[in-house]
Recover the amino acids of this structure.
């Protein structure tokens, strides 16, 4: 997708309605390039864990170019928490892992 965003060809891909990106951290500048190249396309960032499923959270399209590093909201059917090394929930602002 990043390569398409950098391509200066004349095609517009106006038929493209939705892009779902997954798999790794997306730098804000890359997200902004993608959105600028495809302004009529809703772009979503998704996060998942191999042992859980392909997707656990999603970042709504409205936040695609403004919430760098954000993994988004849990899917409606899931309950998630941020836990410390002891498996207990951490307080706001503390570092932990998605459970």
């Amino acid at each position: 997708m990043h390569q398409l965003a950098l391509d200066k060809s004349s095609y517009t891909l106006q038929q493209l309605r939705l892009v779902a990106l997954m798999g790794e951290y997306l730098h804000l500048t890359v997200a902004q390039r993608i959105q600028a190249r495809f302004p009529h396309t809703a772009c979503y960032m998704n996060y998942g864990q191999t042992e859980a499923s392909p997707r656990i959270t999603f970042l709504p399209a409205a936040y695609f170019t403004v919430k760098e590093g954000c993994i988004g909201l849990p899917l409606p059917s899931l309950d998630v928490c941020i836990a410390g090394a002891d498996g207990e929930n951490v307080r706001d602002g503390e570092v932990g892992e998605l459970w």
